[in-house]
Design brief:
globular; alpha+beta
């Protein structure tokens, strides 16, 4: 049975050790902004939420790629073939969860589960991140997250809204 990455917000402490481990393994730097997952902290409400790539069964990022650079491996993980990627950003805009991003050179990146050995899970001592075959409770938790977490608008639409707000505010 294939393993998947599950996130349990009830156990997350917001420490960001997972994002540091991820950026170190994938980018060679301790920089959470370059991680393939995010931790959203709500300090006034007293909780944190780990946001991970769901490796969607019907992956919008994969379907949006005009060059077939995004593909699903035999393990079920959606991956990127950098040699085929044009840097168009369609995959970034297609992900309703905001889990595909582009680096400074325009090349997209996303979680590939560290080839089956996720660094984030190893570093999560609170056990808020689990890499397992899953049981009914984990799949139910994942389904609830997939239903409630979609972003309103694509990253490109959000950038346009921010630009419009800045333009309006600069006029006086």
């Amino acid at each position: 049975m294939k393993k998947e990455l599950f996130a349990n917000p009830d156990l997350c402490t917001g420490c960001n050790r997972c994002t540091i481990a991820c950026s170190a393994k994938n980018e060679g730097v301790f920089q959470p902004s370059k991680a393939r997952l995010r931790v959203t902290n709500f300090p006034l409400r007293g909780f944190s939420v780990p946001n991970v790539c769901f490796q969607c069964p019907k992956a919008n990022c994969l379907e949006a790629c005009p060059n077939d650079a995004m593909f699903r491996g035999a393990d079920g993980v959606v991956r990127l073939n950098r040699d085929l990627c044009s840097g168009c950003g369609n995959c970034v805009n297609a992900c309703p969860y905001g889990m595909v991003e582009q680096n400074a050179k325009g090349i997209p990146y996303k979680c590939d589960l560290c080839d089956g050995d996720p660094a984030c899970v190893k570093e999560c001592h609170a056990e808020a991140l689990v890499h397992a075959a899953g049981d009914a409770a984990l799949f139910q938790l994942k389904a609830a997250q997939m239903k409630t977490r979609p972003q309103s608008g694509t990253p490109l639409e959000k950038r346009h809204k921010v630009a419009e707000t800045i333009k309006r505010n600069s006029r006086g």
